[in-house]
Amino acid sequence: MAEQHNPNHYYVPAQSKWPAVGALGLLLIAFGAATTIQQSTGHVQSGVPIPGWLILMAGIGTIIFMMIGWFGNQIDESITGKHNAQLNHSYRYGMLWFILSEVMFFAAFFGALFYARNLVMPWLSGDDVSTHDWLWPAFENSWPVLTTPDGKTSTTQMLPWGLPFINTVILVTSSITLTIAHHALQAGKRSTLNLWLFITVALGATFLFLQAHEYHEAYAEMNLTLHSGIYGNTFFMLTGFHGMHVTIGTIMLIVMLGRCLKGHFTNENHFAFEAAAWYWHFVDVVWLFLFCFVYWF
Amino acid sequence: MSAVIHEHDHHHDDHHGPAKGLTRWLYTTNHKDIGSLYLWFAFTMFLIGGLFALVIRAELFIPGLQLVKPEFFNQMTTLHGLVMVFGAVMPAFTGLANWLIPMMIGAPDMALPRMNNWSFWILPVAFGMLLSSLFMDGGAPNFGWTFYAPLSTKFGPPSTDYFIFGVHLMGISSIMGAINVIVTVMNMRAPGMTYMKMPLFVWTWLITAFLLIMVMPVLAGAVTMMLTDRHFGTSFFDAAGGGDPVMFQHVFWFFGHPEVYIMILPSFGIASAIIPTFARKPLFGYASMVYATASIAGLSFIVWAHHMFTTGMPLAGELFFMICTMLIAVPTGVKVFNWVATMWQGSMTFEAPMLFAIAFVILFTIGGFSGIMLALAPADFQYHDTYFVVAHFHYVLFPGAIFGTIAAVYYWLPKWCGRMYSEKLAKIHFWWSIIAVNLTFFPMHFSGLAGMQRRVPDYAIQFADFNMLSSIGAFGLGIGQLFFFYILWKTIWGGKAPKATAQVWEGAEGLEWTLPSPAPYHSFTEPPVVK
Q1: Quick one: which of B59, B77, B76 has its CA closest to B68?
Q2: DSSP state string for B389-417
Q3: How far is B133 from chain A (nearest CA, A)?
Q4: Chain A residues within an 8 Å CB radius of B237
Q5: Which of A147, A167, A238, B73 shows a CA-CA span of 20 to 30 A to B93?
């Protein structure tokens, strides 16, 4: 019923307090994060009398409160048939353009990686420009940069064919299992859906566990840290933001699993599931680029 | 079925009119309410940013240091730029988009009304945080609105961290606003409103929204790397660790150049709506206008390093970015030609919106020409970081973006509030502004070509006359915009302004003029049919 588009009637949603709550939450997060960082520098410069992390936590709490309320509201409206086909289209378009903005966010960090590898390294090691002779004549061009130009930091390379490769297999597999779940949903096979969605969530969690293990190894044994010059910088920035996105994606899939178990979604009407699936495929594709350019080549 | 229809009807009954009190504005999902919020927020920021500019102009009235300390002067140049770009121009355009796009394409509202409200309310929050940095120890950010590393990383004041998170919030707001515009245009057009029938304002905003989605995340990436460079031991912008401060400029300008088109494309759309109305002729070359706008947007991604000619780029890079930049003159020339050709042999009248639109075409073109001069890499070595650059971008921003916005406000205000503004006062506002804007910014061409550096609170004595003229013009310009507020207040709340007809302007065409004035709270509850 909700799928029928009544061409003579537009749907306009009712007023909602959640956007305002969300703005407050973002204020607390931004202000709290900046204050926490300021206070951690040891100088009491911000003039804020309470610990920043308290503000930050309050902000995160507010955003979680908002998400539960806002999504809950959406789910209610969807189940009671208030949404029409046009609105569902709007949601789909919205999600796709949001994913494009995420692609560009990663593009900034990949851009930094390529710029450093292909332009900065040759320059710092003496191609074309004379800074090499004046500043760090001992520096040689290599990737990964295991010793920084000023010679102060040394590190080791994270090799691709151990954990990173296993993680690649896990993530690609999870995209396949999620697609199986999606087809099961479309075919109305609910128990198949629940099984394969559960497997996908488990694969996502395994990926995160292995990634955490890799980070531990990097810090504890390889001296590969966020401080290790441009190699460590790009490594942790790219894998870190990717890991954050996998975490978000896993949480989304867990919510979807919960909703599937409660019997939500119909064969045709399951935008939330589709959005989560698109997001999951997106983080999967980003990982393939990461595996190629951060670990492998 | 009947139950569902009942649901819909009931739903609509709740929303024929606006809710009462403060929650109307805080909880609203209405594109007109949100549009008004955006526009008034932008106007407030415009006055605050203008105040910062006047501090700069007061200090530069005569050579020597008299009113403010150099540190504070730097904070003023930084905040003036940030507030005007992110607080005034961009929200003003988003406000216009909110008000106009649903009316122009025959929709009841924006596609995602709640997200629309969220993206607005993030803005006061972000700017409250940014402006509060003025009162922090160490002062506000002082590295210019471009926040180049290492000024912002190694040497930035403590408030830089609040600035970084403020930029993140502005980015979130802009991206959500842009998604909303794109989805509205793609999904909410009335039957028969094909893409090539859309008003050009809708087209230019669609392309603007695409640019926003492409580049705002890159800005977020830039400030994130800045944050980790400041506090988490990375060296993205530090050669000692294998990074490069020039890389910051590349990342920044990859965002920054499309950003300057984000601040002008909607004005192109506004001029393309107003000029045909008052020339009483259809727009010349509609399709070429669409393609020219898309070409400008496409080219904007491959010209960014023309902001960095003096950083020591390889020669091939200089040539590539120089030639691509000059290519932009082609689609822009097509647009200017089309506006002039629209006026050719039209039966023109010169009401305030038309005056501002014509001034936009002429003065924006001056800014375009100085842009071509700056695009020449060898010449740019001379002009770089001088007042010539300041003159150039203020010519495209003030008479470009801001005159466009003012023209739009005069043009559509009768539709929004149902009352006509005073044509006499609006003409005074126009002539006052056009004299002041040229008095402020034209002398900067000369002081810049003679070698006066930008962003310095003191200058050599030979620049004194030009600077005094600029300062007098700037104060005049500021007073003129307070007068603009008086006109708006008198029209909207004064009570005596005459009622507007639905058509408002004799020559106006488009769906928004088929609605009564003021437009109903929900523009179209049933889709109009476009033939």
Answers
A1: B59
A2: HHHHHHHHIIIIIIHHHHHHHHHHHHHHH
A3: 9
A4: none
A5: B73
Q: Tell me the three-class secondary structure of A6-55, residue by residue.
A: CCCCCCCCCCCCHHHHHHHHHHHHHHHHHHHHHHHCCCCCCCCCCCHHHH
Query: Residue B512 catalytic?
Result: no
Active-site residue B259, yes or no? yes
CA distance B437 to B232: 45
Instruction: Output the pLDDT for position A83.
Output: 82
Q: What is the DSSP letter of A154?
A: B
Q: pLDDT value at position B2?
A: 35
State both tokens at A160. Answer: 């691709």
Task: Locate the chain A residue with the closest alpha carbon to B244.
Answer: A120
With a CB cutoff of 8 Å and minimum separation 6, the contacts of A137 are none
> Which residue, among A53, A47, A46, has the nearest Cα to A28 in the 3D structure?
A53
Q: What amino acid is encoded at B119 in this protein? A: S
Which pair of tokens denotes residue B189? 């057009």
Tokens in use for A73? 């509201």
How far is Cα A188 from Cα B341, in angstroms, rounded to an integer? 60
Q: Where are the domains of chain A?
A: 14-82, 92-296
CB of B484 within 8 Å of a chain A CB? The answer is no
Residues from chain A contacting residue B235 (CB–CB below 8 Å): 148, 229-230, 233
Q: How confident is the model at residue A10 (pLDDT cuts 50, 70, 90)?
A: low
Considering Cα of B387, then B130, then A16, then B43, what sign does the dihedral take?
Answer: negative
Place of tokens 């199986």: A180
CA distance B263 to B25: 26
Q: Which of A81-95, B7-21, B258-272, B505-519 has the lowest mean pLDDT?
A: B7-21
In CATH, which of 1.10.287, 3.40.50, 2.40.160, 1.25.40 is domain A14-82? 1.10.287
The whole-model pTM stands at: 0.94
Minimal Cα–Cα distance from B187 to chain A, Å? 6
Instruction: Report the complex ipTM.
Output: 0.94
Q: Which tokens in the block code for residue B496? A: 């005596």
Provide mean pLDDT across the span B454-481.
96
Computed over its alpha carbons, how large is the radius of gyration of chain B?
Answer: 23
| CB-based contact B28:B109 (threshold 8 Å) | no
- Residues B481-527 pLDDT 10s: 999 999 999 999 998 889 999 999 999 999 999 999 999 988 887 88
User: How is chain B split into domains, by residue range?
Assistant: 32-514
Query: Could you tell me the two tokens for A177?
Result: 């299992």
Name B63's Cβ contacts closer than 8 Å, sequence gap at least 6: B458, B459, B460, B461, B463, B464, B467
Chain A residue with CA closest to B28: the answer is A15
| CATH no. for A92-296 | 1.20.120.80
Helix locations, B143-199, DSSP H: 160-187
Given this model, what pLDDT does residue A9 score?
58
- Structure token digits, residue A182: 């999606």
Lowest mean pLDDT among A129-138, B23-32, B438-447: A129-138
Residue of B nearest to A47 (CA): B136
- For chain B, how long is the longest CA-to-CA vector? 81
Work out the mean pLDDT of chain B and round it to a whole number: 94
Q: What are phi and psi of B232, to 5 degrees?
A: -120, 20
Using the predicted structure, report yes or no on whether residue B11 has a pLDDT greater than 60.
no
- Domain B32-514, classified CATH 3.30.390.10, yes or no: no
The closest alpha carbon to A16, from A64, A92, A77, A88, belongs to A77
- For residues B322 and B376, give the distance between their C-alpha atoms in angstroms, rounded to a whole number: 6
Mean per-residue pLDDT, A71-86: 87
Q: Per residue in B153-164, pLDDT tens? A: 999 999 999 999
| Residue that is written with structure tokens 């160490």 in the block | B138
For tokens 């009235």, the residue is B61
Structure tokens, B475: 């104060």
